[in-house]
């Protein structure tokens, strides 16, 4: 399929590549998880083959490899394609019992995984250097050759149940890669899908072909036989909901494009087949990758037809186009069913028939009229055929129900055997044995030992109490000679679905198809789709609508966050303006004063009237003046009234501002949530890392993962990977002791590393905890002195906690020998700077002999920081709230000095007080107003150290939006960034860690200087 | 925004071929300086500047330019001239240099003018030592002397100094 590469049009390529990266990341995770699981099993049991291994495990890995293979082929990524193809072969061989998993095979698989992951990473980051898969391919080749060839003879002993020698089924052809095309099938060679392994999880399809030679030639008939293209193709019982949502979304889009291309095909657009091919292939891949194998199969068949079309082996006929439309419609209605959460009854088989007819019609130019008729009659024949069985099953069910009442979970089952199959009673016995192994058999009819005429025996009914799930049970029971397995769950957890299963079984005959039709050997010894759908509905949880998702470029989310941040700023400014307006619009006592003035004026007027001796002219003039003043005052009064109305308006405004506050908070929260992803996948990576370390060091280490559902900002998760890897490696390498030492210390041989993530207040805490030897204070101190990180004088004053903090100093390492795993130990300061780069902090706690805990504390989001606003040196500083312990007032009697340094007594604790001016160098000469007691102290805490920072004013709490200084300037030591305040001014965000550390160097008589340029 | 930028770059390309260039001229003390117009984002009034500790003295602080925080450089201090209190004429020239936006305080902004490249003479070797590396040349216009500034250099040099000094302060802070 690697020749698909040239179909890709450029504009699609990037999008497809993004899809591929997304998808393959998930598939790699599946591979990794399952490999690790397999690895555990191999370690327990030595080796594993198909019989003692969970088939789901192998199948899942097979599918993951297969999906990557398919997707990579589509994109023309030949290296990935070749590698996954080989890996797929290994799993395929394992599924067929030809491969035994040993430690070596697993090592090879892990190596393959690494290279595969590397190749995929290279697509994302082209500059990465990766090892090519060449040598690996040879190793796999050798392995496969060894596994396949000498195995031929020994297989019978190894896996007797499944491969019970049956005279009618010679086995060699099953081993060959291509199914042997026999006379019977060659007639319909054109319509036989060439890749049975593609979507069919069962190896049996090949066996079907090999049986045909025994058929007395009914060639023309078989060609017309309605065929169940979906025999043995089953959907995975459980599709993870979140993937389903993504799939549904994607599928919708793909189907849209498919329909458009089909319309183009109809109009004879030359590139329509290619577009169609790309889309069907994509659909096939994504459906298969989440386990919807039936839909995938249909898409696959469409793809095959399209391939012929593009290679000009096929002519476009109206029938063909109709068939394609039918296919697209069938897929669409199936997807719609998924969206509604109602398990749909698809008609894939009918559509497939139609497609195949159209294909054969188009290629042979000879439409066969008889086919539809033939298929419909045989279909009805088969209906009657299996109805007998299902009626019997219903009868048996009544009897079974009586026996299962006291069991809480299990299955009622019906195994139908191929009536023509020789020795089927032996097969049945095998089935019964298997049942006994799987659980408690509560009912089994007929009793095989008393069976008198094994020839007539066809159905086996049973009730089984088991915890095995339907899917694996079905697989276990589905051995050669069995035509179908119907399972119906009973018991509390699946009560509801049992009914649906019942309905499914009722509907079974429709598609139980040729299976039950006795006499014809050309049918597959496979279950029809009906029992499958019964199983599907029985296993799946009550249907729920998958939530709809949308893939969004993270840059857009960044932009959204940024805008939200600006809104938060604007909101703060808005509230402030409201307050100002309200204050300035208050008329206060102005009205009363005015009233007073009016009264005085009146009195003057009255007085003037009474002053008879005043001359007439003067009296008149006085009156005029008073009146004019009165008129003016009235105007003023009017204005004042308006002002007081403004006051009301200001109140309204502040109400609106409050509302805006709520909205912006909601917006901020939602914008933040869109960026949140669970930390689980990141933690998951450490399983492998710990496993590798275990191998290298011979230590026994168990990884305990907690809180994987805790959500973090996507960007933060990306940034966290490196520091976490470092911490985990350190814990595994230096923290956990070798088993002998642990035993000697009275601890279990195995060490435990715990990864945990949880919310604490407004931040998220991520912990890496080990139960190892703990930090060795003496060694740290020795090293610190050796490396001159501290002076001997300082060393004497340090508490154990303070000694531990020395590990964060640059270039510090306590590992006596540099190991391959944790390297040179230059990492701790890098861990710290990485964490601080995302506004987090990291702290260490340790108990000698008990272990060490590293706690990374992160803000909920990268962009917005809840802070305390204070005024220092006449500038506004924002102090991250998470570093603020409390705010206290310290009067003169609470302040004293120790060695010349100011110390405050806070409820009995002595806390050093450091002025910011002692830490920072300011350019302006005029010193800030000297702070005099009582001092307002903000108590800061960092790395177990406390510091009292005197501030001029406390301005309040505010969520500030962090602006990096480096964007337009550069980073300034001691300043974590800037923020735009409510009044539009710029405030500085204090870097608490730097301040606290600066303060410690002060106390160590190392003056902290700014730039003295 | 982008279209404007494209137009101006296209214009400047054309100018390179025709040999003319447009300058924004401004005053610093008694001297007149010119900056290529393509580097100038806008010219704004002096506003309140938030002071920042731990930086060289010619960095006056930070301002909020429409939700972007940009540093403000005092060109007088950068060139070793005596400081001066802002007047009514004092302006901040906002420059776009090397993907960063910075502001520089100048005494006054004069005009936009067009010159021929042939008019540019190399700076005499006796020009003051500070900031000499930022000068690309001199232009004589009707008896006026215009000093051409290379803003890329202003930033690079300032930046250099910044990074150097930040390296030292970093170690001290540790």
List the helices and strands and how they pair.
The complex is a heterodimer of chains A (1013) and B (174).
Chain A: H1 10-45, H2 55-74, H3 78-95, H4 103-124, H5 134-148, H6 151-158, H7 172-175, H8 183-186, H9 196-199, H10 205-211, H11 219-224, H12 241-266, H13 272-289, H14 293-310, H15 318-340, H16 348-364, H17 370-404, E1 409-417, H18 424-438, E2 440-445, E3 459-465, H19 470-477, E4 482-491, H20 495-512, H21 529-539, H22 554-585, H23 590-610, H24 616-674, E5 676-678, H25 680-697, E6 701-705, E7 711-713, H26 714-735, H27 739-744, E8 751-760, E9 763-770, H28 777-786, H29 792-797, H30 800-805, H31 827-837, E10 841-847, E11 851-859, E12 864-872, E13 875-880, E14 884-890, E15 895-898, E16 901-906, E17 909-912, H32 916-919, E18 935-942, E19 945-951, E20 953-961, E21 975-980, E22 986-990, H33 992-1003
Parallel strand pairs in A: 6-8, 13-22
Antiparallel strand pairs in A: 1-3, 1-4, 2-3, 5-7, 8-9, 9-11, 10-11, 12-13, 12-20, 14-18, 15-16, 16-17, 18-19, 21-22
Chain B: H1 2-18, E1 20-28, E2 31-36, E3 40-45, E4 59-65, E5 68-74, H2 75-78, E6 91-97, E7 100-106, E8 108-116, E9 120-121, E10 135-141, E11 144-149, H3 151-173
Parallel strand pairs in B: 2-11, 5-7
Antiparallel strand pairs in B: 1-2, 1-8, 3-6, 4-5, 6-7, 9-10, 10-11
């Amino acid at each position: 399929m690697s020749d698909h590469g040239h179909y890709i049009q450029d504009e699609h390529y990037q999008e497809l590549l993004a899809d591929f990266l997304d998808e393959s990341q998930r598939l790699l995770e599946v591979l990794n998880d399952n490999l690790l699981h397999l690895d555990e099993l191999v370690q327990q049991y030595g080796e594993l083959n198909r019989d003692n291994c969970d088939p789901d495990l192998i199948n899942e890995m097979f599918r993951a490899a297969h999906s990557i293979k398919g997707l990579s082929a589509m994109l023309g990524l030949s290296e990935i394609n070749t590698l996954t193809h080989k890996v797929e072969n290994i799993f395929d061989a394992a599924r067929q019992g030809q491969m035994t998993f040993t430690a070596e095979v697993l090592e090879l698989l892990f190596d393959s995984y690494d290279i595969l992951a590397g190749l995929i990473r290279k697509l994302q980051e082209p500059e990465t250097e990766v090892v090519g898969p060449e040598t690996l391919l040879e190793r796999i080749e050798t392995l496969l050759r060894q596994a396949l060839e000498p195995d031929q003879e020994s297989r019978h002993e190894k896996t007797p149940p499944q491969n019970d020698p049956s005279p009618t089924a010679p086995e060699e052809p099953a081993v060959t890669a291509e199914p042997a095309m026999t006379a019977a099938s060659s007639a319909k060679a054109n319509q036989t899908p060439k890749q049975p392994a593609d979507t069919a999880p069962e190896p049996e399809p090949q066996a079907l072909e090999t049986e045909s030679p025994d058929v007395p030639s009914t060639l023309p008939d078989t060609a017309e036989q309605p065929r169940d293209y979906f025999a043995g193709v089953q959907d995975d019982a459980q599709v993870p909901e979140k993937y389903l949502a993504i799939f549904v979304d994607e599928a919708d889009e793909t189907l849209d494009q498919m329909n458009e291309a089909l319309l183009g095909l109809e109009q004879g657009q030359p590139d329509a087949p290619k577009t169609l091919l790309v889309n069907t292939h994509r659909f096939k891949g994504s459906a298969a990758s989440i386990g919807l194998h039936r839909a995938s199969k249909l898409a696959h068949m469409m793809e095959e037809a399209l391939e012929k079309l593009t290679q000009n082996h096929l002519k476009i006929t109206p029938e063909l186009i109709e068939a394609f439309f039918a296919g697209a419609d069938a897929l669409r209605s199936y997807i719609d069913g998924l969206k509604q959460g109602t398990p749909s009854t698809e008609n894939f088989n009918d559509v497939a028939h139609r497609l195949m007819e159209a294909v054969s019609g188009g290629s042979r130019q000879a439409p066969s009229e008889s086919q539809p008729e033939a298929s419909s009659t045989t279909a009805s024949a088969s209906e009657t055929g299996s109805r007998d069985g299902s009626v019997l099953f219903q009868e048996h069910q009544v009897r079974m129900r009586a026996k299962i009442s006291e069991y809480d979970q299990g299955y009622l089952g019906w195994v139908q055997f191929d009536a023509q199959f020789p020795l089927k009673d032996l097969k049945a016995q095998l089935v019964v044995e298997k049942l006994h192994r799987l659980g408690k058999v509560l009912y089994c009819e007929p009793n095989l030992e008393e069976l008198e005429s094994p020839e007539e025996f066809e159905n086996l009914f049973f009730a089984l109490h088991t915890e095995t799930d339907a899917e694996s049970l079905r697989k276990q029971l589905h051995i050669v000679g069995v035509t179908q397995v119907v399972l119906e769950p009973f018991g509390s957890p699946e009560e509801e679905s049992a009914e649906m299963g019942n309905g499914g079984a009722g509907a079974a005959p429709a598609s139980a198809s040729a299976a039950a039709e006795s006499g014809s050997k050309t049918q597959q010894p496979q279950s029809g789709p009906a029992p499958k759908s019964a199983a599907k509905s029985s296993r799946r949880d009550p249907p729920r609508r998958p939530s709809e998702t949308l893939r969004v470029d993270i840059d857009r989310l960044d932009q959204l966050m940024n805008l939200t941040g600006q809104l938060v700023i604007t909101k703060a400014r808005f509230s402030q303006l409201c307050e100002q307006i309200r204050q300035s619009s208050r008329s206060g006592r102005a009205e009363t004063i005015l009233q007073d003035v009016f009264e005085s004026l009146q009195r003057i007027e009255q007085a003037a009237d009474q002053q008879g001796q005043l001359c007439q002219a003067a009296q008149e003039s006085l009156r005029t003046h008073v009146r004019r003043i009165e008129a003016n005052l009235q105007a003023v009064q009017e204005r004042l009234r308006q002002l007081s109305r403004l006051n009301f308006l200001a109140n309204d405004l502040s109400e609106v501002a409050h509302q805006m506050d709520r909205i912006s908070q909601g917006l901020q929260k939602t914008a933040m949530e869109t960026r949140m992803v669970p930390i689980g996948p990141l933690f998951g990576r450490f399983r492998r890392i710990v496993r590798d370390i275990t191998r290298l060091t011979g230590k026994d280490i168990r990884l305990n993962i907690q809180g994987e559902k805790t959500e973090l900002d996507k960007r933060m998760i990306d940034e966290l990977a490196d520091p976490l890897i470092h911490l985990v490696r350190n814990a595994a390498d230096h923290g956990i002791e070798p088993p002998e030492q642990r035993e000697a210390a009275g601890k279990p041989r195995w060490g435990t590393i715990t990864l945990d993530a949880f919310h604490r207040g407004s931040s998220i805490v991520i912990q890496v905890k080990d139960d190892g030897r703990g930090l060795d204070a003496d060694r740290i101190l020795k090293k610190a002195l050796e490396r001159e990180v501290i002076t001997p004088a300082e060393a004497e004053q340090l508490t154990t906690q303070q000694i531990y903090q020395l590990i964060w100093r640059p270039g510090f390492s306590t590992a006596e020998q540099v190991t391959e795993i944790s390297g040179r130990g230059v990492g701790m300061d890098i861990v710290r700077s990485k964490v601080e780069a995302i506004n987090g902090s990291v702290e260490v706690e340790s108990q000698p002999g008990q272990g060490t805990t590293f706690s990374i504390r992160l803000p909920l989001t990268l962009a917005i920081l809840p802070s305390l606003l204070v005024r220092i040196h006449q500038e506004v500083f924002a102090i991250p709230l998470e570093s603020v312990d409390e705010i206290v007032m310290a009067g003169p009697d609470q302040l004293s000095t120790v060695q010349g340094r100011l110390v405050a007594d806070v409820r009995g604790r002595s806390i050093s007080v450091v002025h910011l001016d002692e830490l920072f160098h300011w350019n302006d000469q005029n010193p800030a107003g000297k702070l005099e007691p009582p001092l307002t102290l903000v108590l800061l805490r960092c790395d177990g150290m406390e510091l009292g920072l005197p501030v001029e004013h406390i301005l309040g709490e505010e969520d500030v939006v962090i602006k990096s200084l480096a964007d337009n300037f550069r980073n300034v030591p001691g300043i974590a960034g800037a923020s735009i305040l409510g009044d539009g001014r710029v405030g500085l965000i204090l870097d608490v860690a730097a301040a606290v550390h600066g303060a410690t160097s002060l106390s160590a008589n190392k003056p902290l200087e700014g730039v003295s340029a | 925004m982008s279209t404007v930028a494209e137009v101006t770059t296209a214009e400047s390309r054309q100018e390179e071929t025709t040999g003319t260039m447009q300058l924004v001229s401004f005053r610093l003390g008694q001297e007149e300086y010119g900056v290529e117009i393509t580097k100038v984002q806008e010219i704004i009034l002096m506003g309140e500047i938030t002071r920042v500790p731990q930086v060289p003295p010619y960095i006056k602080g930070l301002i909020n330019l429409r939700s972007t925080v940009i540093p403000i450089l005092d060109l007088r201090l950068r060139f070793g001239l005596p400081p001066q209190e802002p007047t009514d004429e004092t302006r901040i020239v906002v420059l776009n240099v090397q993907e960063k936006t910075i502001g520089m305080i100048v005494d006054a902004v004069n005009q936009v003018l067009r010159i021929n490249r042939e008019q540019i003479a190399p700076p005499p070797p006796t020009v003051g030592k500070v900031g000499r590396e930022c000068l690309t040349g001199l232009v004589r216009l009707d008896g006026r002397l215009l000093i051409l500034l290379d803003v890329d250099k202003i930033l690079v040099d300032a930046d250099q100094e910044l990074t150097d000094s930040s390296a030292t302060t970093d170690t001290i802070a540790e």
